[in-house]
Design brief:
This is HARLDQ motif MBL-fold protein. Pfam families: Lactamase_B. InterPro entries: Metallo-B-lactamas, RibonucZ/Hydroxyglut_hydro. The chain has helices at residues 2-8, 50-59, 77-80, 83-90, 98-105, 189-201; strands at 14-17, 20-22, 31-35, 38-42, 67-71, 93-96, 127-128, 134-137, 140-146, 155-160, 166-170, 207-210. It is of the alpha/beta class and 214 residues long. The protein has a single domain, classed as Ribonuclease Z/Hydroxyacylglutathione hydrolase-like (Metallo-beta-lactamase, Chain A), CATH 3.60.15.10. The strands form two sheets. A seven-stranded mixed beta sheet has the order 1-2-3-4-5-6-7. It has a five-stranded mixed beta sheet with strand order 8-9-10-11-12. The longest helix is centred in the C-terminal third of the chain and has 13 residues, at 189-201. It is globular, with a radius of gyration of 16 Å.
């Protein structure tokens, strides 16, 4: 419980660079990409953090109802727990990889490593995105980079901002207490994580953002 309390600890929103705001908790990132045509929110923290994320967006001077797309890095309660409420409140389209979409629809159950131990409110994905596929809004482009390993659907997001700056919002590459060799629930785990290190290492961007602090 203390871990979840630490994950949910609120902080004030702050601007990272022009058009990019941190609106998450002290430990779990939620990033708001702002444009005149509407906004994109990456990750949703815990279910209990959804009201704080909404409040942070408003404190930064924006409206949750102007969010057009919700993006997810991985489908566990720390990054997708608040997605159901934020989607309902915003009316935004949820965009995710197929494995993340499947796991969010199950509310985190049948996790290859955690089983049914850490469920969260299920949520339906509106658009399945493929590796290297992009979405554009108001002069910014966000490209999905599949970086599987932490979860099979893990996705990092590369963003080209309106001013030409680039950033990467990176999913975790951690394998905490995972069985790496001959994992019957995830046979490709080792090759996936090796490939994901290469994918992220090949990105040359102006700003790196991790999806969580630890």
């Amino acid at each position: 419980l203390s871990l979840f309390k630490a994950w949910a600890k609120p902080i004030k929103p702050f601007q990272i660079t022009e058009g990019v705001w941190y609106v998450g908790t002290e430990n779990l990132s939620s990033i708001l990409l702002t444009t005149p045509a509407g906004h994109i929110l990456i990750d949703a923290g815990l279910d209990e953090s959804a009201p704080q994320i909404k409040a942070n967006i408003e404190a930064a001077g924006f409206r949750l109802t102007d969010v057009r797309y919700l993006l997810n890095s991985h489908a566990r309660l720390d990054q997708a727990g608040g997605m159901a409420r934020l989607k309902a409140w915003s009316g935004a389209q949820l965009v995710a990889s197929q494995p993340n979409a499947d796991q969010m629809a199950r509310g985190g159950r049948e996790d290859f490593a955690l089983g049914d131990a850490l469920p969260f409110p299920p949520v339906t994905t509106d658009k399945i995105i493929h590796n290297q596929e992009s979405i554009s809004l108001g002069g910014i482009t966000v490209t999905a980079l599949f970086t599987p390993g932490h979860l099979p659907g893990s996705t990092s997001w590369r963003v080209t901002l309106r001013n030409g700056k680039t950033l990467i919002y990176a999913d975790s590459l951690a394998t905490p207490d995972y069985l790496l060799i001959n994992n019957k629930n995830y046979p490709d785990l080792v090759t996936d994580i090796q490939g994901s290190f290469k994918t992220l290492a090949a990105q040359h961007v102006d700003i790196f953002i991790a999806n969580k602090g630890d």
